[in-house]
């Protein structure tokens, strides 16, 4: 097998199922249908997978065009091992609610950190 530089090496992966991790943290799973010299991707039968703890949910997205600069990771999915997951699949509604609760918890923890740092700064200023 000859080595092909850059995105040309992905030609062999056309029509295979892939997982794509995007720069904004989203995870897409779909069949790679096209790729160009800028690593722009076209995915078919795409789902957006949301993970929260040990649960996940898939939101159908259909055909998805991804700009190459937004791709962090691209990997082929082994179809034989795809169903071998310790995660529990839940409904879209349930995973979206779990995601909202997780984001709210994270936001509250961040507010507490900011307040603690502000309090420390105020104490340090008072002693100077």
Automatic annotation (TrEMBL):
<keyword id="KW-0175">Coiled coil</keyword>
<keyword id="KW-0597">Phosphoprotein</keyword>
<protein>
    <recommendedName>
        <fullName>U6 snRNA-associated Sm-like protein LSm1</fullName>
    </recommendedName>
</protein>
<dbReference type="Pfam" id="PF01423">
    <property type="entry name" value="LSM"/>
</dbReference>
<keyword id="KW-0508">mRNA splicing</keyword>
<keyword id="KW-0687">Ribonucleoprotein</keyword>
<dbReference type="GO" id="GO:0000932">
    <property type="term" value="C:P-body"/>
</dbReference>
<dbReference type="InterPro" id="IPR001163">
    <property type="entry name" value="Sm_dom_euk/arc"/>
</dbReference>
<comment type="function">
    <text>Plays a role in the degradation of histone mRNAs, the only eukaryotic mRNAs that are not polyadenylated. Probably also part of an LSm subunits-containing complex involved in the general process of mRNA degradation.</text>
</comment>
<feature type="coiled-coil region">
    <location>
        <begin position="93"/>
        <end position="120"/>
    </location>
</feature>
<feature type="domain" description="Sm">
    <location>
        <begin position="5"/>
        <end position="80"/>
    </location>
</feature>
<dbReference type="GO" id="GO:0000956">
    <property type="term" value="P:nuclear-transcribed mRNA catabolic process"/>
</dbReference>
<dbReference type="InterPro" id="IPR047575">
    <property type="entry name" value="Sm"/>
</dbReference>
<dbReference type="InterPro" id="IPR044642">
    <property type="entry name" value="PTHR15588"/>
</dbReference>
<comment type="subunit">
    <text>Interacts with SLBP; interaction with SLBP occurs when histone mRNA is being rapidly degraded during the S phase. LSm subunits form a heteromer with a donut shape.</text>
</comment>
<dbReference type="GO" id="GO:0008380">
    <property type="term" value="P:RNA splicing"/>
</dbReference>
<dbReference type="GO" id="GO:1990904">
    <property type="term" value="C:ribonucleoprotein complex"/>
</dbReference>
<keyword id="KW-0963">Cytoplasm</keyword>
<keyword id="KW-0507">mRNA processing</keyword>
<dbReference type="GO" id="GO:0003723">
    <property type="term" value="F:RNA binding"/>
</dbReference>
<dbReference type="InterPro" id="IPR034104">
    <property type="entry name" value="Lsm1"/>
</dbReference>
<comment type="similarity">
    <text>Belongs to the snRNP Sm proteins family.</text>
</comment>
<dbReference type="GO" id="GO:0006397">
    <property type="term" value="P:mRNA processing"/>
</dbReference>
<dbReference type="InterPro" id="IPR010920">
    <property type="entry name" value="LSM_dom_sf"/>
</dbReference>
<keyword id="KW-0694">RNA-binding</keyword>
């Amino acid at each position: 097998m000859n080595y092909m530089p850059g995105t040309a090496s992905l030609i062999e992966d056309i029509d295979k199922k892939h997982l794509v991790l995007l720069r904004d943290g989203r995870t897409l799973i779909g069949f790679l249908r096209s790729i160009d010299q800028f690593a722009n991707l076209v995915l078919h039968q795409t789902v957006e997978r949301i993970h929260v703890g040990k649960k996940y949910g898939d939101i159908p997205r259909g055909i998805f065009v991804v700009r190459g600069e937004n791709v962090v990771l691209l990997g082929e999915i082994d179809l034989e091992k795809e169903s071998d997951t310790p995660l529990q699949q839940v409904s879209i509604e349930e995973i979206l609610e779990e995601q909202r609760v997780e984001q709210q918890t994270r936001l509250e923890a961040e507010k507490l950190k900011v307040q603690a740092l502000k309090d420390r700064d105020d104490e340090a200023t008072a002693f100077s």
